[in-house]
Amino acid sequence: MTSAASHPEHHRISPVFLGLVAIMAVSGWAVWYGWADVTGVSVFFFVVAGWIVSLCLHEYAHARSALGAGDVSVGAKGYLTLNPLRYTHALLSIVLPVVFVILGGIGLPGGAVYIERGRITGRWKHSLISASGPATNALFAGVLTAPFWLHGVHDMPVAFRSALAFLALLQVTAALLNLLPVPGLDGYGVIEPWLSPAARRQAEPFAPFGLLIVFGCLWIPQVNEVFWDVVDTILRGMGVSELETYLGLEYFRFWQGEPQNVLLP
């Protein structure tokens, strides 16, 4: 008899996720070849589809780590299918992060899959489950920036190169923000197993407001400046310049008009 954890239906990749990958591939092809009359529209779909794909991979990493640690319930919940519609809060997991990208050009972390922590023993396992999501964003950023740090971008079309840079920026911001030790975010989930029961009880009421706390802090000019300095430093280490990420955002916001006659070194 097939167990709930190993049922094929629970591991089959969702057509929704495959559709997102297809949109990302087709729009990326359109950006590369300048297929659309308005390149920025193609960049917009490439970045949004890529961003949602990364959110799916982020949540999948949590679920897969939880399955390996003993929570077999994640399969029946559909978390292993990479279907974003199966997440606990589809609005928080997908819609809200996309809105933040459109409005502010920043990759805020999304919602979460529900892990039955009572099925899992060992503090290290709990910490690794929480850390696996941001680690996935960091890995995705490394893949996206590989052409930059391997010095293979010079023959790329400017729009595609800039779109890659902007999508990589979203991954870096998501990883950094998610690693903050704020209740409700993965960074807190990493350290929570090591806190005393009293400290956990004090932090628990703030968990539903973690995203709002982060967003509010980013409105503080000094905090915002330090945050973006860290992001730019990481991206420069990956070979991505501030100009490339800026152009990516400009192409992405196609409704404001595309940059003209841009030359990159």
Automatic annotation (TrEMBL):
Localization per Swiss-Prot or TrEMBL: Cell membrane
Top-rank taxon, per record: Bacteria
CDD domains in the record: S2P-M50_like_1 (cd06158)
Cofactors (names): Zn(2+)
Transmembrane annotation, as ranges: 16-36, 43-61, 90-115, 127-150, 162-182, 203-221
One GO cellular component term: plasma membrane
Chief localisation class: membrane
A Gene Ontology biological process term: proteolysis
Membrane topology: Multi-pass membrane protein
UniProt keywords, alphabetically: Cell membrane, Hydrolase, Membrane, Metal-binding, Metalloprotease, Protease, Transmembrane, Transmembrane helix, Zinc
Record flagged with keyword Nucleotidyltransferase: no
Gene Ontology molecular function: any one: metallopeptidase activity
Family: Belongs to the peptidase M50B family.
Protein name stated in the entry: Site-2 protease family protein
